[in-house]
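job 3f2a | input accepted
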Amino acid sequence: MAAEMIKIDPEHRERAFSRCKDVISRGGVIAYPTDTFYGLGADPKDPVAVKRLYEIKGRKADQPILLLINKAEDVKKWAAEINPESENLMKKFWPGPLTLVFKAGADVLRELTAGTGTIGLRVPGSELTRSLLDFLGIALTGTSANVSGRPNPQTADEVAASVGDKVDLILDGGRTAGGKASTVVDVSAGQPRLLRDGAFPLQDVRPGGCNGNTPSRK
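job 3f2a | predicted structure (218 res):
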């Protein structure tokens, strides 16, 4: 069955946002525009919804899921600790396509961390996405709205072609910027460590840094 699709009215965003809130509060999964691509949004505190998200993507259980948050102050709701290095990166690059990986708080679902003990967080650069997050009053999962291994979608129609029969609602906010996915930097051990190069080049995030290896969080 094809997902419901709602196009955002710029003058009355709350109408579409209210429908998203209804779906998510019932454990549903939506597709929504971010500052890079369309993402799959579920309540990150709902283990059933998060499990369904993995099934929609065909994602392996050992691959963690990042979260999009409305503002930097929300980090404390998910991270066990915030060190000076991470605070500097947040001040410099948020809002924007930089995902920071923190040591996860004790109540963060294991399904999100995939057993790594860490959680990826990002304040998106898109004002539209932040408005949605503010309206919902919660964080949203931010993995791309596609089947794992397939191209990241930039339009609602591309989402519909990829996972339109699996999600509950597609929020059509027009074409997203696309380009590279977010840069991912691990700050869980203090000194920032690049895990994935992306929209912010390594030299902009940490001069002289080095690459690392981690499961994809996109």
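job 3f2a | The chain has seven helices and ten strands.
job 3f2a | closed
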